[in-house]
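Example record for the data management plan.
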Amino acid sequence: MTATRLDFGILLAQAYQEFVRQLRATLAEQGFTDQGRSDGYVFRALDAAPLTVSELAERLEISKQGAGQIVDDMERRGYVERRPDPRDGRARTLHLSERGRAALAAARRFHQRYERRMIREHGPDAVATLRTLLLAMVGEDQAADPRFRALYL
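Corresponding structural encoding:
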């Protein structure tokens, strides 16, 4: 079957799933065998700045209860810490633990190696074109949204 005969949306979804499968396998090899589906988004959000659970919920566009469950689980697994908020003594802010920072660094290294491999295998022009297509699909406004800016770092 040729690539032009495959459904574009399904192919795009499969490409993402394969990327995530390889990322999880690489992280598991480095001792991060307990990654959750939302961990990467939380890692990058908290790396940019400490957040409260409410702020994290807003950033992830989920309920406060949903964010609280994710944070509880990540705290239990040693990726996130809660600390008193210096701005509001009643609130607690979320921070990446040492383990969380190590997992995020490992994931970023994987992202960089993956892109370098794609450039080696398909050439810089093909990767630049793919990046341009993905940006067009996402939209300039969405890509520039401050809530997602921290994800790119």
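Summary line stored alongside the record: The longest helix spans residues 98-122.
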